[in-house]
């Protein structure tokens, strides 16, 4: 099995690539532009592994992507490359439109051209998995869950660009017959998460005794999924998901942002007692414009139809994550240095 993974040097993409190569024994070509969010150090465990190859390319570069299809000849595409930071999309939407919309269009066109050239049995086996977010559904009130038939209602430039890309992917399936499957997942957390995102930011600020900034009152709710559970889900959906279908992925782990930060503080008290009590570092900052109140996923379709289940509960997953950051400064320190240099005050990802 040969899988072309876009965005494989990012947070979720690198978990997917590690899973495919190390657990499944597949051959993988990672295609990644290595933006600020991508680093090959996240794939260090695959150094010198002959089953993994890397191509530095922009998914908007049609010639480079078409060449990647021709030379690698994938059985499957898992398309994760995206601009993914909501706050960055608010201050600079252009890159989100370019990568998430034009880049997805380019991937679909190159995949279509390649797929049409295949023999019948290869054509039948080919799958294009488009990986997306639950943020396309907008915001929930106190009740209810996002289902696959929930209408799209995106709030931020990021989620609007992802919604556009989901529609393009389905349209390429319905119009041209490209065998597309779409997944929409809730918030991920775990190792190799870029230091500007909520959970790593709080761990690393707590470690340095810096303020832990929380948007608004911290009441916004997210449904957290451990990244390795997501990687497994994506592999299952790409393998057995039905064409032209959407699968929602979520861990049934709803938490208020404030509760997440308080739990991190407790764990930091345990593993970094010198800074205790870390809760005193919590500070409240002005809310993000268009901040969705609550996301929560109904993953019944994926669980019953494809037999996937989240294995990690939030309490054990967050403890593993805190320990991973404390043990892996070699990975985050260089990234954080770049982030600190470029960071803009008040622009802190709250998931
Ligand atoms: P990330 O920002 O950590 O990684 C994105 C990767 O894409 C990086 O390696 C980056 O270098 C690469 N990239 C960006 N622009 C590119 C371009 N033009 N050409 C080639 N490569 C490019 O993102 P992530 O959190 O790992 O998210 C991966 C995917 O999963 C995205 O599509 C995102 O929308 C989706 N998703 C993320 C979450 C989450 O909680 N992080 C939840 C649901 C869905």
TrEMBL record:
SUPFAM superfamilies for this protein: NAD(P)-binding Rossmann-fold domains
Uppermost EC category: lyase
GO molecular function (one): dTDP-glucose 4,6-dehydratase activity
Gene3D superfamilies: NAD(P)-binding Rossmann-like Domain, UDP-galactose 4-epimerase, domain 1
Pfam families listed in its UniProt record: GDP_Man_Dehyd (PF16363)
Lineage: Bacteria, Pseudomonadati, Pseudomonadota, Alphaproteobacteria, Hyphomicrobiales
Entry-linked CDD domains: dTDP_GD_SDR_e
Keywords: Lyase, NAD
Catalytic activity from the UniProt record: dTDP-alpha-D-glucose = dTDP-4-dehydro-6-deoxy-alpha-D-glucose + H2O
An example Gene Ontology biological process: nucleotide-sugar metabolic process
Domain NAD(P)-binding: 4-321
Cofactor: NAD(+)
Keyword flag NAD: yes
InterPro entries, A to Z: dTDP_Gluc_deHydtase (IPR005888), NAD(P)-bd_dom (IPR016040), NAD(P)-bd_dom_sf (IPR036291)
Gene label: rffG
Classification via NCBIfam families: dTDP_gluc_dehyt
Enzyme Commission (EC) number: 4.2.1.46
Presence of the UniProt keyword Iron in the record: no
Entry's family note: Belongs to the NAD(P)-dependent epimerase/dehydratase family. dTDP-glucose dehydratase subfamily.
Name of the protein in its database record: dTDP-glucose 4,6-dehydratase
